[in-house]
C-alpha cells in the first residue's frame, strides 16, 4: 500500500468538496479548482476528509494512487490558503514594476521585457527587486515563476539575474583566480 496514498486528506474549514464520478471539485476563499481523476483511482468523500483509493494493485495503479492523493491535497490547500513563490532580482539597475496586466522587467537587456500575467495568478512587486507570485493552483504558480526566472536566469560568476528567494547560486571563480594555479 502506498504510504502517501493511504493517508486521508482533511478538509479545511471554509472549503467545500464535491466528488461526482471521476471529477473532484473544491471551492474555498481563494478560488475554485477541479481535477479529473485517472481511471485507476477514485475518491471517497466523508464529512471531514477525502480518501483516494485505487482500483487494483497493478504497478500503474500504485503509482497513480500517491500522485492523485497529493494533487487533491494540493487542491484543498490551494483553495483554502493559496501558494506563493518569491523571486529576487540581483544586478545593477535590475528592477520590476506592474503596468496593468503586464510585469515589466528591466534586467540588463537593451529594452524592458514585458511579461503577460495570467488571469488566475496574482503578481505583486513588493520592492523594485522582489516579485511575489501567488494563486490557488500550485502547478500554475510554479510555472509562472519559472517563466519569469527564465527571462534572465542567475549566472554563476557574479550571481546577476532572477532567482528564487531560497535558491542558492553556486559561484565560480573568475579568470584571475583560475590562472593563479601555475
Task: Please give a structural write-up.
The structure is a single chain. This protein is α+β, with helices and mostly antiparallel strands and 182 residues long. Strand 5 and strand 6 (49-54) form a beta hairpin. The protein contains three helices and 13 strands, in the order E-E-E-E-E-E-H-E-E-E-E-E-E-H-E-H. The model has no long low-confidence stretch (mean pLDDT 91). The protein has a four-stranded antiparallel β-sheet, with helices on one face. Strands 1-6-5 form a three-stranded antiparallel β-sheet. It has a three-stranded antiparallel β-sheet with strand order 2-3-4, with helices on one face. It has helices spanning 59-80, 138-151, 175-179, and strands at 9-10, 16-20, 23-28, 31-36, 41-45, 49-54, 83-90, 95-99, 102-106, 113-116, 122-127, 130-135, 161-164. 23% of the residues lie in helices and 37% in strands. The protein is elongated and about 60 Å long. The N and C termini lie far apart (59 Å). It folds into two domains: 9-80, Ribosomal protein L6 (Outer Surface Protein A, domain 3), CATH 3.90.930.12; 83-164, Ribosomal protein L6 (Outer Surface Protein A, domain 3).
Class from helix and strand fractions: alpha+beta
Helix content, binned percent: 10-25%
Number of DSSP helical runs: 3
- What would the principal axes of the Cα set say about the shape? elongated
| Total strand segments | 13
Head-to-tail CA distance between termini = 59 Å
Instruction: List low-confidence stretches.
Output: none
- CATH superfamily of the largest domain, by name, is Ribosomal protein L6
Strand content: 35-45%
Indicate the radius of gyration in whole angstroms. 21 Å
- CATH topology of the largest domain: the name is Outer Surface Protein A, domain 3
User: What would CATH call the architecture of the largest domain?
Assistant: Alpha-Beta Complex
Order of helices and strands: EEEEEEHEEEEEEHEH
Biggest β-sheet description: 4 strands, antiparallel
Mean pLDDT: 91
Number of domains: 2
* Largest beta sheet: strand ordering: 11-12-7-13
Amino acid at each position: 500500500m502506498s504510504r502517501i496514498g493511504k493517508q486521508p486528506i482533511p478538509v479545511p474549514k471554509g472549503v467545500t468538496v464535491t466528488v461526482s464520478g471521476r471529477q473532484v471539485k473544491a471551492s474555498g476563499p481563494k478560488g475554485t479548482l477541479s481535477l479529473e481523476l485517472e481511471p485507476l483511482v477514485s475518491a471517497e468523500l466523508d464529512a471531514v476528509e477525502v480518501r483516494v483509493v485505487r482500483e487494483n494493485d497493478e504497478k500503474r495503479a500504485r503509482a497513480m494512487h500517491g500522485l492523485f492523493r497529493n494533487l487533491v491535497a494540493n487542491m484543498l490547500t490551494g483553495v483554502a490558503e493559496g501558494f506563493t513563490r518569491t523571486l529576487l532580482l540581483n544586478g545593477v539597475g535590475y528592477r520590476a514594476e506592474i503596468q496593468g496586466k503586464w510585469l515589466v522587467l528591466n534586467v540588463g537587456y537593451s529594452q524592458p521585457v514585458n511579461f503577460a500575467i495570467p488571469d488566475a495568478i496574482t503578481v505583486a512587486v513588493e520592492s523594485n527587486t522582489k516579485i511575489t507570485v501567488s494563486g490557488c493552483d500550485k502547478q500554475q504558480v510554479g510555472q509562472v515563476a519559472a517563466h519569469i526566472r527564465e527571462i534572465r536566469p542567475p549566472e554563476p560568476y557574479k550571481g546577476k539575474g532572477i532567482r528564487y528567494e531560497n535558491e542558492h547560486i553556486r559561484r565560480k571563480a573568475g579568470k584571475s583566480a583560475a590562472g593563479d594555479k601555475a
